[in-house]
Amino acid sequence: MGTRDLLLRAGLEVLTEKGFSASGLDEILGRAGVPKGSFYHYFDSKEAYGLALIERYADFFARKLNGHLRNPSLAPLARLHAFVDDAKDGMARHGFCRGCLIGNLGQEMGALPESFRLKLRETFEDWQDRFSTCLMEAQEKGELAPDESPRELAAFFWIGWEGAVLRAKLERSARPLDLFAGFFFARLKPA
């Protein structure tokens, strides 16, 4: 693994636990085992590093979503359940100490560079689009009522899910995730 990748990997680990403002460069460099001079060879500033982290996480998570939401062996709504179960298992695996980088940064937006705002919004919109596509497929297959709005349901999911992830970290428990997912899936009207 190259130095740039080591820096990004360490940054993702630290920032999903602590957020951007509370994460010091020295901690990230220590976790990556990289000297400070190397950091500035790859990134002009902490802001440039943050933007690269957003992009890396967005790409990683898009692949994760695609793995679930485009799985042809499952019905569309079962794909959404599979994503929720996988995300919940991932949080449990890390003792509910790590959350979503995009959600963490969104909560810190008042203290972050303005350049982050557009990247964070684009990422959330991308995730919503992926969910919306799966929900449209659920409509086409008769799993979801035709009067439901896949776009609004997808937006609702991500707004609520990110709050549930925050509470799961706070409580160190899957209960908020289960509670939100239960209400979300119960809200879906069958065809």
Distance between the termini: 49 Å
Task: Report the CATH C-level class.
Answer: Mainly Alpha
Main pleated sheet: none
Query: Count of DSSP E strands?
Result: 0
What is the architecture at the second tier of CATH?
Orthogonal Bundle
**How many domains make up the 3D coordinates?**
1
Sum up the overall morphology in one term. elongated
Under CATH, the topology is which?
Answer: Tetracycline Repressor, domain 2
CATH homologous superfamily?
A: Tetracycline Repressor, domain 2
The mean pLDDT is 94
Radius of gyration: 18 Å
Structure annotation, total helices: 9
List SSEs in N-to-C order. Answer: HHHHHHHHH
List the defining traits of the structure above.
9 helices; mainly alpha; 191 residues; Tetracycline Repressor, domain 2; elongated; 0% strand
